[in-house]
Each structure stands twice: as C-alpha cells, then as structure tokens.
C-alpha cells in the first residue's frame, strides 16, 4: 500500500531545504575569511576569535544567561503553580480572569507586552536593568510553562494523588512524592521552553532594560541593523550548534526511554 | 439447508461472478497468496475464514482494488479487473473500522458514493431514503457518526456500501467491533439484507461461528492457500483435513493406522449379549445427545451453532413441542434457554421418577446394526480399534487421523451399547451453562472431550470428577482424515 | 487557607505584571504628551484621593485616537499590517500544507525524525533565523548569485529591504507553526477513510478534496491563526528585512516610542492593535474549543 510518492518526496525535500538552507549558508559564511558575503576568501575561524575577544559580546552573553536562568526557574515555579491551580483548584472567584491572564500573553504582541511593562516600571519608579528584564521574562514565559504543564496535568490520573493521600501523605507530600515526579518531564520541557524564550527575546528586553544591561539579542540586533556582519555569523553558528546538540540529545534520550519502556513492557508481558 | 436448492457451485454451466485464476500476491519476500484459484457465484454469501495472517484480508483488498495482483488474474463477471482502479470497480467494501466520514452526516455518508456517480438529486434522495429504511436508520439521518452507537455505525457503513448497488459487497470483519449479543443479532440482519438485496457478499472473518451462521459457503484459508471450500455443514461435518477439523469448532483427534474392515463385519466392539443398536440407554442425561448425533444436519441452523453456541437442548420440563415453540418464538424475548433451569423449581420425586420423553421418533436411525465396511483404526496399544464406517478401505495401512466432535461423543456411567466404547476417568468438567464438556482420560493417557447438554440441574448430574465413565460414539459419527 | 495562598501567588503576579501594566497603557493612551519625565499628563496624584481621581478622569480624552485617524501613516500601517500578515499566512499555508501532508504520509519510522526537524528551528533563535535571510537576499548575496549564474536574471534582484523580503521572512520563521497543527490533524486521519472514498468512486484527487482537506481543516485554521496573530504585531522582521516604505504597526509603535518618545500615541497604537487582534484571537479560541469538543 505504501508507495513512494514523488509528490511527497518533493514536498519534504523542498520544505526542509527551505527550513535549513538559510541556516546552513549562515554557518558556512561564518567560516569565510572575507568580511563580504559575496566573496569566498577561504576557510577561517578568525571571526570566532574576534568574537571571543569582544568584551561587549561576552558581557551581553553573561547578562543574557543570568536573565535566562533566573527568569526560567522562576517562571517554572510560578507556571507549575498556575497550572496546578488551573487544573486542580476547582472553581474559585475570578477563575475566568485568571485563565484569561494565563492565555492572553501567549497571543499578545511582544511590542505591547514590552511597552506596558516598561510603563509600569516607570510608573512605580523601578530602576531598569537585569532585575526588570527577569520580571518581564518571568511573566510571559510562566504562561508558556503553565500551558505545557497543565496539558500534562489534565491527562494525569487523579486516583494516583488520592492513593497517596489514602496511604497517609499530606497534600504537600502527595504533590512532592507523586504528582511532581510524574509531571516532571513536562516541568522540565517547560523550563527549557522558558529558557529559550528568554534567550531569544529581543523586543520585551529592549523595552524593559536600562542602560546598564544589554542582552545578546539586543546586541545582535543593533549590530545587524547596519547589515551582515561575519562576527554575528560566528555567534549565530555557535548558538545554532548549541541548540542542535541540545535538541538532538534530548530527543535521543526520550526515544531511548520510550524504547526501554516498550522493551520492559514486552518482557513483563512475556513473563506474566 | 437441504430444502434450499441454492447451490450454484454444483452446477457445471453456472458462470461465476468472481474468479481468481492462479492468483499470487507477494509483499517483497513474503507470499501472502499462493497460486490460488476460486470461483464465487452470484447471490452467494461467501466467507473467507482463517487465522490472522492467512491472507484472507489480502484476498478482499485485491477484490476491492487496494492491492495489486502479483501473478494471475481476478475476473469479475468474466472481465479481467486487474487493472481497474478501486474507484471504477462495481465492488464496494464495508471497512472493519467502518471508515465513516466524521465530517459528514449519516445521510451524506450514504449519499457519498451516489454523488460521485453524478446521479441526479431525486435519485439520490430516493436511494438514500431506501437505504435508511433498509437499515432502520431513518431517524438518525441528520446525525454525525460520533453521535450514534456502534451498532448504528455498523449499519451506516453497510448502507453506504450498498447504496451504489454494487455487484459485489466486501465485508471486512463487519461485526468485529460489536459485543457478542449485538453481533448475533446483526448476523441475522446481514443475512436478511443480503437476501433482500440479492447482492453477492464476501465476508472476511476469523470467527468461525460467524462464518458458519451467515455463509452459504466458507473458504478456510491457511498461509495463503485455500484448505477447504464448502458449505458450513460440510466443513463442520466432513472436514477434509486435520487443520480444518481443528480450526472449526472443538474436536477430538485420534492419529492411528488404518486397517481395512471386511464388508461383512457386523459386530465388533459392542457387547455381544445385547442387541446391536444405536438405541441410547434410557434414563441417562446423555441419551438426548446420542440421538442427535447421527442425524446431525449437514448445515447447522443459525440457532444451533456448534459446539459452544446454544444447541438443541432439551430441558426437563417442556416437551419437544414446547422446546420447538421456545426456540422459534420465545427465545427472541426471553433469551437462551440455558438460563431457564435456574428459574425452575427443583424437580420433585415424581418428576425424577417419571420416564423421560423418548427422543423424537425421527431421530432414530433406520439401521439397527453397525454399518458394514469402512476401516478399523488402530490408535493405541491395548485399546480396541475405532470402527469408522466412512473410512475408505483403500487407506489400508496408511497413517490417518480420526476426527470426532465432542458433541458426538457420549458419556455414561455404565458401559453403553455403542460401536466404539472406551473406559476412562473424568479429569475436568467445563460448565458452559447450556452444555458441559467433560475431559475424560482414557487408559494410556489420551484425553477425550465429550459434550453433554445440561438437561438437568447441576445437583442431579450423575457424573462428576474422578468418576469412571464410558465414552462412546457411533461408527458414522466421525471422519477419517489423511494428511 | 493553603489553597487560597496557592491561588493567590500566580494570580497576584499576573495581575501586577500583566493586567495592571495593560491598564496603564490604556490610561496613557488617553493622556496628553508632555515635555516632562514621564512625558505625559495627567499624572495620577495618589495623595489627592477621590478628588484627585475626579480631576484625573476629567483630563483624559480621546485626542490620541483622533490623532491616529487624522494622520494616514497609522491607518495605512494598520491596513498594511493586516495585508502583509494575511497574505503571508496564505503563502505559509501553501508551503506548509504539502510538507505536513508528506510528513503524515511518510513511513512511521521516519515521522519522529521529521517532526524533530520541524521543531528544531523553533528552538533556534528567532532573530538569527531572520538575520540569516539578510545575507541571502542581499543584492550581492547567494540567491542573486545563483539566479545570475543560472541565467534566470541578468541583473541582481532588489529583494532586501522590500515587502517581498518581509513575506519571505514571515513565511520562513512561522512555517513550523503552520506545519505542526496540520500535521497532527492529518496524522490522526484514518487511512481507511481514503480507501472508503476511493471505494465509493472517488479519484485520488477528489478523495483529497472531499475527505482529507475537510478533515484537516481544524489544523489548517489553527495553523493560520498561529501565523497570522503574531505576524500582525511583528517588529523584528519588518525592521530587519523590510524597507523604509514597509509599514507594519509593530514597527510604527517601536519608532513612536523610542524615536519620537510619544508615549500616549504609542499607547493608543497598542490599544488599537489589540482591538484588531481580538477578533482573530476569539475566533481562534472558538476553533480550538470546537476541535476539542469534536474529539471528546
């Protein structure tokens, strides 16, 4: 029944070429000796060297990393809590507003989120810097975390929690010992998502930062506004490499786990 | 089905609707269908039966056009249809998953094929109405598939595939998704609709009971080949191989060596001081069973699907007429009679003492003696040989297998007067409500299954575990198989 | 009691950092620009109490919104944003559907890998993905070089800094958002439905239009909204790939705020952008709900 359809093969080839060629070209040009895009002047890693000598880039990378780690961790805690409230707390006053506030930031244009937070920070006279970016990133990425976690919680068999309570756990222990380990994969992917979102964000960071804190995307943006820069090519290549390694490793681990589980289940079925 | 003369396969000049001519289908290295030839005639209800992976689904998908034939030809009304795509074949299929379009209403689902034919609106309206009426779905016309029950979905799938009035309807495990009770009802509905529409049905199933119930002929398949193609009665009563005997229903198999039996042999194993007859020993629960054995119909009626289906059981209280009445009328409302004894009061002494009604006179075989001829089968050291009147004396000296259905084996506490009688011990009793299967171990270790209708309540049953019993069967009850 | 605390923490956080800021935007959009810090009036005077509140409200007006209608830059950029987002959504659909279809039809063993390949760009920096096109589309970039070498064109195309570049950028960056929902709709499609359609007389093409397409519609709608909604407020793509004549409301808002420092007008622009977005967002929610109900 399965035939190799030329239409399908062509669609896949063209589709993935479109998705990946730009990045591949970018990676190739990051090793170009010449400053110009047009001329291939031979293989060189000099732009990487220059990148690591540029203190501004290193500072920005450090700020970005700090912001991402703090905001994603905070967002994971708050987002998991929000998901728990959303799925488990039942009815309470203002639940509709609450779920609205969880979903709205997902579709809110970044320019509006950024603008509104900036106006708040000015309004209450908060000094802008790393702290305000962390607050801003936490706010919008906790919503993503809570969506990821709540979808896992929704399929979670409530009887497991009840069994824990029945066996003498306090509500907190039941959450810590039963619920959390089971939703852990969702919490971890929520954290990763929040981390990437924070790492990636240009618009909200631009609005909420002050002169003291420049993140990597802000730095990249101001550099590339003027045109293609080989240094940015090198930086992009590094980021692409990190993400690729991360995602591929994660998917291999997940696949291994799935295969191992399937094997265990098979073995169990045989011995039964 | 003796009274029905519908048997086109027996007529030499009859043109088949479908013909497989030396069809082979390979998937890479794997041969799914191996040089298979088969004719299916118009108005047949033809069942392809076999375990999963035997190639029955491949056969059906080749008929529908979803699989191409590797070698050979498939002919539909004498036209080669190998190269006709599925959408151009006058063949429709009812899918196992029903494959109802979830975005269309029941009405639109049924009209789907008619619209593709470009029929005018009035025609489509009439035809869909007709189909809805046929399948009793008129009320649900506007609903979507997920808004109706499983049984109704099954009927929509049937209506949709019948709407185009195909020459041939293919049914892929049509009742597989239904629960047992609904499945039995639906089997009759299917037969009814097949008869009304006069369409040729080819059904794929792994459920032998279902095939026995609905089909006019059954093709038993194994590893891409046809093992036997015959009427349900013949398949059951005269399997042509151990495979078929074993696949259809429950069976006792005695491998042994054949020895020709002289024509004039009259009496062999039966006790000499008793008149040799098939007359059952009175006052034994098994007696009824004995009576039914020789007269077993070639095709079991739908209500008597052997062996675990409800059989023609006789209960202590009603007589034969009452039985008949129950079976024909009340069973529909009250359910199988197997439940009936539980509602009856315990039998009183009078009832117990009263002579049981004699088995119907017609049940008595005409010949009182053991049929002459046939073969002996030596199947175990120290045991008398099995007398098989149906065996071919030419088999003399060959390895054969004697196959006998458990319901044709009687079980008694005293030695009965039967041509083949063996002593054994009851090891296990499987109580199935209407019947019980006794597992009896003969001397030498061979297990024999004997089935008995539970005409009496458990407490009154004379036979129990560890009892020494006699199993017996007539010389014509089993079949001699050669591999 | 503990439950109340559990609810209160995320609730208060979101109220303070999402709802209140948005109300501030609403308020400032009704204020006047002022050469001060912060550069708008009236300031709400907390010490004046209720009286102050009255005075505060009396000074609010819709002047900024009136201003937005008088200067055609604004409504033109709203219109152009809708047009660019809409058209690029359709292009993304045209590009993404065949890919999603082919993925769903691919061998089962391949599907997880293909899926990962679609998701991978999503984890890669958005900014970098947009930036990668700057080099490719440049007049002396690889795309023009290839086209020139093939003899398709005889002089470099000016794609960079035009709306065409913006379309390419949006289609490229949002393609995974289109592919994923369509793929998940198509993957659920029972193959026997297509066989049933063929069995009932459909050709392959008509089986696609009558069965596959309608059944993948929830995925298509979800994908379109997932592309259209963020594309409408897009800032990075038009500012990096677009030209000076590329009008998109996100860019206008940014410039109004950072370059002109006109906070009230920027806020008014934001309020109207949100008003425009509410329609597709509500429609999207409905679609999702319907899809969930159909499944359940």
From TrEMBL, chain A:
Its predominant location is: membrane
Membrane found in the keyword field = yes
The entry's cellular-component GO terms read: plasma membrane
Q: Which GO terms describe its biological process?
A: transmembrane transport
Top-rank taxon, per record: Bacteria
Topology with regard to the membrane?
Answer: Multi-pass membrane protein
A Pfam family of this chain: BPD_transp_1
Q: Which InterPro entries match?
A: Bact_Polyamine_Transport, MetI-like, MetI-like_sf
**What organism is listed for this UniProt entry?**
Salipiger pallidus
User: Membrane-spanning residues where?
Assistant: 12-31, 67-89, 101-124, 130-153, 174-194, 232-253
Q: Which PROSITE patterns match?
A: ABC_TM1 (PS50928)
This protein's name: Ornithine carbamoyltransferase
Domain ABC transmembrane type-1 intervals: 61-253
Q: Which family does it belong to?
A: Belongs to the binding-protein-dependent transport system permease family. CysTW subfamily.
Tell me where it resides: Cell membrane
Keyword annotations from UniProtKB, A to Z: Cell membrane, Membrane, Transmembrane, Transmembrane helix, Transport
What is the organism lineage in this UniProt record?
A: Bacteria, Pseudomonadati, Pseudomonadota, Alphaproteobacteria, Rhodobacterales
From TrEMBL, chain B:
Which GO terms fall under molecular function for this chain's record? ATP binding; ATP hydrolysis activity; transmembrane transporter activity
Pro residues bias: start-end ranges: 297-309
Q: Which domain of life does the UniProt lineage start with?
A: Bacteria
SMART domains, sorted: AAA (SM00382)
Show the taxonomic lineage: Bacteria, Pseudomonadati, Pseudomonadota, Alphaproteobacteria, Rhodobacterales
Does this UniProt record's set of keywords contain Amino-acid biosynthesis? no
Family matches, as SUPFAM superfamilies: MOP-like, P-loop containing nucleoside triphosphate hydrolases
Cited InterPro entries: AAA+_ATPase (IPR003593), ABC_SmlMolc_Importer (IPR050093), ABC_transporter-like_ATP-bd (IPR003439), ABC_transporter-like_CS (IPR017871), Mo/tungstate-bd_C_term_dom (IPR008995), P-loop_NTPase (IPR027417), Transp-assoc_OB_typ2 (IPR013611)
Domain called ABC transporter: residue spans = 18-248
The record's annotation in PANTHER family points to: PUTRESCINE TRANSPORT ATP-BINDING PROTEIN POTG, SPERMIDINE/PUTRESCINE IMPORT ATP-BINDING PROTEIN POTA
**Which protein, by its recorded name, is this?**
ABC transporter domain-containing protein
Keywords of this entry: ATP-binding, Cell inner membrane, Cell membrane, Membrane, Nucleotide-binding, Translocase, Transport
Q: Which GO terms describe its cellular component?
A: ATP-binding cassette (ABC) transporter complex
UniProtKB/TrEMBL annotation, chain C:
Question: How far does the signal peptide extend, from start to end residue?
Answer: none
- Xref: Pfam families: BPD_transp_1 (PF00528)
Provide GO CC annotations from the record: plasma membrane
Q: Which residues cross the membrane?
A: 12-30, 82-102, 114-134, 164-186, 220-243, 263-284
The membrane-topology field of this record reads: Multi-pass membrane protein
Q: Which residues form the ABC transmembrane type-1 domain?
A: 78-284
Family matches, as PROSITE patterns: ABC_TM1 (PS50928)
Q: Where in the cell is it found?
A: Cell membrane
Q: Does the keyword section mention Nuclease?
A: no
Q: Which keywords annotate this record?
A: Cell membrane, Membrane, Transmembrane, Transmembrane helix, Transport
Q: Which SUPFAM superfamilies does the protein's record reference?
A: MetI-like
What are the GO BP annotations of this UniProt entry? transmembrane transport
Transmembrane helix in keyword set: yes
Top-rank taxon of the source lineage equals Bacteria
- Stated family: Belongs to the binding-protein-dependent transport system permease family. CysTW subfamily.
Q: Which PANTHER family match?
A: INNER MEMBRANE ABC TRANSPORTER PERMEASE PROTEIN YDCU-RELATED-RELATED, PUTRESCINE TRANSPORT SYSTEM PERMEASE PROTEIN POTH
Q: What is this protein called?
A: Putrescine/spermidine ABC transporter permease
């Amino acid at each position: 029944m399965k035939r190799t359809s030329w239409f399908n093969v062509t669609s896949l080839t063209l589709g993935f070429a479109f998705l990946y060629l730009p990045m591949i070209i970018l990676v190739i040009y990051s090793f170009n000796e010449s400053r110009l895009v047009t001329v291939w002047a031979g293989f060189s890693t000099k732009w990487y060297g220059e990148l690591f000598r540029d203190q501004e880039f290193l500072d920005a990378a450090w700020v970005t990393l700090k912001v991402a780690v703090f905001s994603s961790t905070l967002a994971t805690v708050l987002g998991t809590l929000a998901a728990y409230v959303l799925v488990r707390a039942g009815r309470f006053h203002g639940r509709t507003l609450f779920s609205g506030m969880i979903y709205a930031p997902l579709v809110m244009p970044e320019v509006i989120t950024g603008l509104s937070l900036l106006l708040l920070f000015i309004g209450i006279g908060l000094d802008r810097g790393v702290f305000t970016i962390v607050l801003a990133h936490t706010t919008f990425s906790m919503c993503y975390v809570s969506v990821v976690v709540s979808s896992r919680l929704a399929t979670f068999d409530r009887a497991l929690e009840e069994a824990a309570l029945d066996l003498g756990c306090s509500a907190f222990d039941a959450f810590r010992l039963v619920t959390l380990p089971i939703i852990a994969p969702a919490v971890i992917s929520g954290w990763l998502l929040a981390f990437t979102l924070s790492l990636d964000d240009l618009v909200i960071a631009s609005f909420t930062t002050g002169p003291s804190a420049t993140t990597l995307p802000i730095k990249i943006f101001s550099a590339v506004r003027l045109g293609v820069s080989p240094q940015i090519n090198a930086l992009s290549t590094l980021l692409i490499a990190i993400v690729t390694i991360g995602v591929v490793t994660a998917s291999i681990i997940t696949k291994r786990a799935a295969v191992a589980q399937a094997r265990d289940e098979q073995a169990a079925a045989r011995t039964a | 089905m003796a009274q029905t003369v519908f048997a086109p396969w027996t007529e030499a000049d009859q043109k088949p609707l479908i013909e497989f001519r030396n069809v082979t289908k390979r998937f890479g290295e794997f041969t799914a269908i191996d040089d298979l030839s088969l004719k299916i005639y118009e108005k047949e209800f033809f069942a392809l039966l076999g375990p999963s992976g035997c190639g029955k689904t491949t056969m059906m998908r080749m008929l529908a056009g979803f699989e191409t034939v590797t070698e050979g030809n498939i002919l539909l009304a004498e036209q080669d249809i190998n190269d006709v795509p599925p959408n151009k074949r006058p063949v429709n299929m009812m899918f196992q998953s029903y494959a109802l379009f979830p975005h269309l209403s029941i009405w639109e689902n049924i009209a789907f094929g008619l619209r593709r034919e470009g029929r005018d609106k009035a025609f489509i309206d009439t035809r869909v109405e007709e189909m809805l009426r046929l399948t009793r779905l008129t009320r649900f016309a506007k609903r979507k598939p997920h808004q109706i029950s499983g049984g109704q979905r099954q009927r929509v799938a049937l209506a949709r595939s019948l709407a185009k009035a195909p020459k041939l309807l293919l049914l892929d495990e049509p009742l597989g998704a239904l629960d047992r009770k609904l499945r039995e009802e639906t089997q009759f509905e299917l037969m009814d609709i097949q008869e009304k529409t006069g369409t040729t049905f080819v059904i794929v199933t792994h459920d032998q009971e279902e095939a026995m119930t609905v089909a006019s002929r059954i093709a038993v398949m194994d590893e891409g080949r046809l093992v036997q193609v015959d009427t349900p009665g013949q398949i059951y009563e005269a399997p042509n191989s151990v495979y078929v005997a074993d696949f259809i229903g429950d069976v006792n198999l005695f491998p042994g060596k054949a020895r020709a039996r002289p024509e004039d042999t009259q009496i062999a194993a039966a006790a000499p001081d008793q008149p040799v007859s098939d007359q059952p020993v009175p006052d034994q629960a098994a007696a009824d069973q004995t009576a039914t054995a020789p007269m077993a119909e070639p095709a079991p009626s739908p209500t008597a699907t052997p062996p675990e289906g409800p059989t023609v059981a006789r209960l202590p209280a009603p007589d034969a007429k009452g039985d008949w009445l129950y079976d024909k009328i009340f069973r529909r409302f009250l359910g199988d009679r197997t439940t009936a004894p539980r509602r009856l009061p315990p039998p009183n002494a009078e009832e117990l003492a009263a002579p049981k009604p004699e088995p119907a006179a017609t049940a008595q075989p005409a010949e009182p003696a053991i049929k002459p001829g046939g073969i002996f089968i030596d199947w175990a050291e120290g045991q008398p040989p099995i007398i098989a009147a149906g065996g071919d004396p030419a088999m003399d000296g060959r390895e054969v297998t004697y196959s006998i259905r458990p319901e044709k084996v009687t079980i008694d506490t005293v030695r009965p007067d039967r041509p083949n009688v063996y002593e054994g011990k009851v090891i296990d009793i499987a109580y199935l409500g209407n019947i019980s299967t006794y597992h009896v171990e003969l001397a030498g270790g061979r297990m024999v299954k004997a089935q008995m209708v539970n005409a009496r309540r458990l407490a009154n049953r004379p036979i129990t575990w560890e009892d020494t019993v006699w199993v017996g069967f007539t010389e014509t009850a089993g079949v001699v198989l050669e591999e | 009691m503990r439950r109340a605390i559990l609810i209160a923490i995320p609730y208060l956080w979101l109220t303070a950092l999402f709802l209140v800021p948005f109300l501030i935007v609403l308020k400032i959009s009704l204020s006047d620009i002022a050469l001060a810090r912060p550069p708008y009036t009236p300031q709400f005077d907390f010490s004046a109490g209720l009286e102050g509140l009255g005075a505060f409200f009396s000074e609010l007006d819709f002047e900024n919104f009136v201003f937005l209608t008088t200067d055609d830059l604004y409504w033109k950029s709203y219109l152009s944003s809708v047009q660019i987002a809409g058209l690029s959504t359709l292009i993304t659909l045209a590009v993404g559907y065949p890919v999603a279809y082919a993925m769903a039809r691919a061998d089962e063993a391949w599907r997880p890998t293909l899926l990962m390949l679609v998701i991978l760009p999503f984890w890669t920096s958005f900014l970098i993905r947009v930036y990668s096109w700057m080099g490719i589309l440049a007049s002396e970039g690889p795309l023009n070089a290839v086209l020139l070498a093939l003899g398709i064109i005889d002089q470099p195309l000016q794609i960079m800094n035009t709306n065409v570049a913006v379309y390419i950028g949006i289609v490229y960056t949002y393609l995974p958002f289109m592919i994923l929902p369509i793929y998940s709709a198509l993957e659920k499609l029972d193959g026997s439905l297509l066989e049933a359609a063929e069995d009932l007389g459909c050709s392959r093409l008509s089986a696609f239009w009558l069965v596959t397409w309608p059944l993948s519609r929830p995925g298509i709608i979800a994908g379109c909204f997932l592309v259209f909604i963020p594309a409408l407020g897009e800032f990075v793509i038009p500012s990096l790939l677009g030209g000076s004549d590329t009008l998109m409301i996100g860019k206008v808002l940014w410039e109004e705020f950072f370059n002109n420092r006109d906070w009230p007008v920027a806020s008014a622009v934001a309020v109207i952008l949100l008003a425009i977005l509410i329609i597709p967002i509500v429609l999207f929610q409905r679609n999702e709900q319907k899809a969930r109900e159909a499944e359940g």
